[in-house]
Fold each of these.
Amino acid sequence: MRQKLVAGNWKMNGSAASIQTLLDGIQAGLASVKNAEVVVCPPFVYLAQVAQALAGTSMAWGAQNLSKEALGAFTGEIAAQMLNDFQCKYVIIGHSERRSFYGETDQIVAEKYATALKHGLKPILCVGELLSEREADQTEAVIARQLDAVIALNGIDALNQGVIAYEPVWAIGTGKTASPEQAQAVHAFIRSRIAAQAPDLAQKLQILYGGSMKPDNAAELMAMPDIDGGLIGGAALKAADFLAICQAA
Ligand code: PEP
């Protein structure tokens, strides 16, 4: 049985005050979450605050991105070893917003995956197709290409140390969710593609769904056999909604 995982991606939202309120709200309801590891990924500048608030609790935290480089002259970037200073367990890699707004290629994503592993961080590797790609029947080809780039650079065994998030780009922040059947089909494709090279690893690998997951659709999505949790954007910004999703896991 794979453990469920629900991770909140707060994106570029919040303030010191609102984040404290959100953390307090999540922690107040945490005892009711029985089946999922709960993770939050704040903006970098709030990692210290989150680390302090969550130290010693059952929750984990992570960053939304990292530099593929080590320390050095890379203005505005954040190195993996800095994330270690704030006890991050996870780091989101290859989110579609990074790929589309900041030009992160499959190769850059693969290099970031390598950097994360080198520093003991667990990557949450995001893959997913655009609406035009789905309509052109290219969903599997796109996901395969995104996965293969990471495997080619890091080796298949590197997936042991990470988590995959299937996030159809057309469902992110749009209110349009993939149906449980649509999501399950892609999750099964991901697992079978990895199983072709590493069957045991594929069975253990957590594959999250992301894309407008909300309290009212979380249970049916996470009931699908290959959906092992969620990567949550908008609904992670309200403690009650985030907790309801965690409880549905
Ligand atoms: C995301 O950005 O990872 C995401 C899933 O966002 P939302 O839940 O808002 O669609």
Amino acid sequence: MKIVQEEFRVSTKSRNQMIDITSQVRSFVSQSGISNGDVIVYCPHTTAAITINENADPSVPHDILLTLEELLPHHRPGYRHSEGNSDAHCKSSLIGCSEQILIKDKSLNLGTWQGIFFCEFDGPRSRKVIVQIRGE
Ligand code: ZN
């Protein structure tokens, strides 16, 4: 089994934002020479996340962010964390910091409407995404 690890940066533009990173992940997979296996997309941050959802209609990421904002407002009585970004930490843990996607015949085995998103919850910032491809 071969393992390849790559990383790239994402520049976010607003406090809450979902950025489609499917094409970057797809190009690392095609450069890896691995035909069948899997890829882990991971972000090493406590106020950001990685998720898979619909990337055809931009209303979908908009509505996800709107829902998260309603569930976890920026300011809330009872938050103790002095940085003032407790909502972002909660969103990061709720969504999770990685996704695993299968690779079949040199391609990401995603559904027709699925894309991989980097989720910013405390931007704008420069962020890192780590991609690990495993297989043969
Ligand atoms: Zn914090």
